Amino acid sequence: MTEHLKDELKSFKAGSGWLNMGRWFEDESFWEEFKQILFSEERIKKTPYQVDRFIELLDLKRGDKILDQCSGIGRHSLELARRGYEVTGVDITGKYLKEAREKAENEGLNIEFVQADIRDFKRDNFYDACINFYTSFGYSEDEDENIKAIENVHSSLKPKGKFLLDVMGKEVLDEIYTDEDLWRLDDGYFLEKRKIRDDLDMLESKWKFIKDNGEVKEHKFMYKLYTEEEIRKLLKEVGFEEINIYGDLDGSRYGKQASRLIAVAQKQI
Ligand SMILES: C[S@@+](CC[C@H](N)C(=O)[O-])C[C@H]1O[C@@H](n2cnc3c(N)ncnc32)[C@H](O)[C@@H]1O
Question: 159 to each of 65, 88, 241, 248, how far by Cα in Å?
């Protein structure tokens, strides 16, 4: 380990400043600077399998209209469109949308990508299904704002429309939680420091990417943690019924040993 890296690690571990992160998710530089971590090749490769599972769990029919809430660089929107679904991808990050639009155009896919906040975007009784995948929910300290995003899903679904929500469950995190981690990547070191904010029921995380070329990138973010019961209650209160909770996209049971907390819920009227 070089002296430079040792210093960076030391300052990272000693660093404070956990409070007042505000609406961190509106900061485009976070999404841009950590794109390579968030959307690694390994993660992208899982997309076709994930879409297979969406089709099964949401009982999708060819031609169904699908809302991809927080569509990111469009990996699921693109794969769904390739399979004949009519997709709207909604995301707040302009650069991600640009990349998604370019990919769609190159493949001749007709996908609507909208730059909007999921707390605002809705289209009444329009979609057959909606996905919110890969911890794209619960970013706000104000729980009413988080709930607004789910209310918008409910309004946007047709009666009997289904919603798939994928988050990190509190029960699962309890089992695997560590305060910090360090990974060696192809082009540098990646550090993560975590803190549970009991006052807000949120996980705060600090990421630092120390590239071999000397570049250093650091950001903080946080998201709400939910138990199975809390997710059920939230979805019920918004108006969803027939709520099924899984521990993985394979449909396995949720529990401490699960990998994710995946809820599939249906709108009745
Ligand atoms: C972890 S990424 C997941 C992307 C995508 N679902 C996937 O699995 O590839 C989270 C995404 O949420 C978007 N995002 C965060 N807050 C948002 C908001 N309030 N409204 C719309 N998009 C938001 C970010 O721009 C980012 O693309």
Answer: 13, 18, 11, 26
The rounded Å distance from CA 101 to ligand 1 centre is 15
123 vs 127: CA distance, rounded Å: 8
CATH architecture of the domain covering 38-167+226-267: 3-Layer(aba) Sandwich (3.40)
Q: Read off the pLDDT of residues 107-152 as tens digits, 9 standing for 90 and up.
A: 999 999 999 999 999 999 999 999 999 999 999 999 999 999 999 9
Contact 268, 160 (CB under 8 A): yes
Give the list of residues 6+ apart from residue 103 with CB closer than 8 angstroms, or none.
73, 74, 78
CA of 117 to the centre of ligand 1 (A): 9
Tell me the pLDDT band of 22, cut-offs 50, 70 and 90.
Answer: confident
Kindly report, as residue ranges, where domains of CATH 3.40.50.150 are found in the chain: 38-167+226-267
Q: Quick one: which atom of ligand 1 is closest to the CA of 28?
A: 25
For a pocket test of ligand 1, which of 92, 103, 151 has the largest count of ligand atoms closer than 8 A to its C-beta? Answer: 92
Looking at the CA of residue 96, tell me the nearest atom of ligand 1: 27
- The tens digit of pLDDT for each residue in 154-185 reads 999 999 999 999 999 999 999 999 999 999 99
Q: Is the CB of 36 under 6 A from ligand 1?
A: no
Supply the pTM of this predicted model.
0.94
Cα–Cα–Cα angle for 139, 141, 133, nearest 5°?
15
Work out the pLDDT band at 12, boundaries 50, 70, 90. Answer: low
Question: Under a CB-based contact definition with an 8 Å cutoff, are residues 142 and 233 in contact?
Answer: no
- State the pLDDT at residue 4: 67
What is the bridge-based pairing of β-strands 261-267 and 180-185?
A: unpaired
Beta carbon of 115 within 6 Å of any ligand 1 atom: no
Verify whether ligand 1 is closer than 6 Å to residue 139 (CB atom). yes
